[in-house]
Amino acid sequence: MAWIFSLSAECGSDGSKARLFAQHFDGATWTLSNGRQCQCRSDIFQDIDENWWCRVCPSNISEIGIESPESAYLMTELGIFFYQHLRSAIAFRYALVGVEVDEFRTYSELLEDTSELSIPGLVLATEIGQQLPLSSAYRTFSPGYIWMPYEGEIYNPLMTSPSLKNKLNELLLAS
User: Fold this and answer.
1) Kind of pairing, strands 29-31 and 37-46?
2) Contact, 7 vs 25, CB < 8 A?
3) DSSP strand pairing (29-31 vs 139-142)
4) What pLDDT shows up at residue 63?
């Protein structure tokens, strides 16, 4: 199973906005601190509410999630590049960077389940943020957008090591 690191943005019911968003990222290239170059590719799709999303994926990055401290570092570095480029993007309602963030909340879920909005890295159009009971941790991201600042990606050995997971399970069974 793939665990994809990406930027996902919800662009509303107009597919042309998602296409504009995709064009903003398509072909963007960044050089990471380890010398590896990553180029963005994007695709658009509709969710169950018939709103359009754009998923932007970098090349040359793990597709099995965060399997080491180094991959967490590189994905965090890429996350910062994504957010820097997102500051000049248009035509999106909300966005998030991370592993498996596709359709992390449909628009209706976002408006209905307001208890789950303390998501580091979540960028919201200001007009949407004004409708929601947001934490004071939200601040200006760019003109027309607010965000809860990104905290980076985290390596969790229990998620990546079957051996450690088995040892923990043994410990839990002994309790």
Assistant:
1) antiparallel
2) yes
3) unpaired
4) 74
Residue listed under structure tokens 């820097």: 84
Radius of gyration of the CA atoms of the chain, in A: 17
β-sheet bridge partners, residue 10: 53, 94
Considering only the C-alpha atoms of the chain, give the largest distance between any 2 of them, rounded to a whole number of Å.
57
DSSP assignments along 42-76, one per residue = EEEEE-TTS-EEEEEEESSS-SB---SHHHHHHHH
**CA-to-CA distance for 7 and 55, rounded, in angstroms?**
6
Give the whole-angstrom CA distance, residue 26 versus residue 33: 21
* Per-residue pLDDT tens digits of the chain, which is 175 residues long: 568 889 999 999 999 999 999 999 999 999 999 999 999 999 999 999 999 999 999 998 877 778 888 989 999 999 999 999 999 998 899 999 998 888 778 899 888 887 778 899 999 999 999 999 888 999 999 999 999 999 999 988 887 778 888 888 888 887 6
Q: Which residues contact 128 (CB under 8 A, 6 or more apart)?
A: 93, 94, 110
How many residues does this entry show for the chain?
175
From 48, 75, 76, select the one nearest 61 (Cα to Cα).
75
| Backbone dihedral angles phi then psi of residue 142, each to the nearest 5 degrees | -160, 170
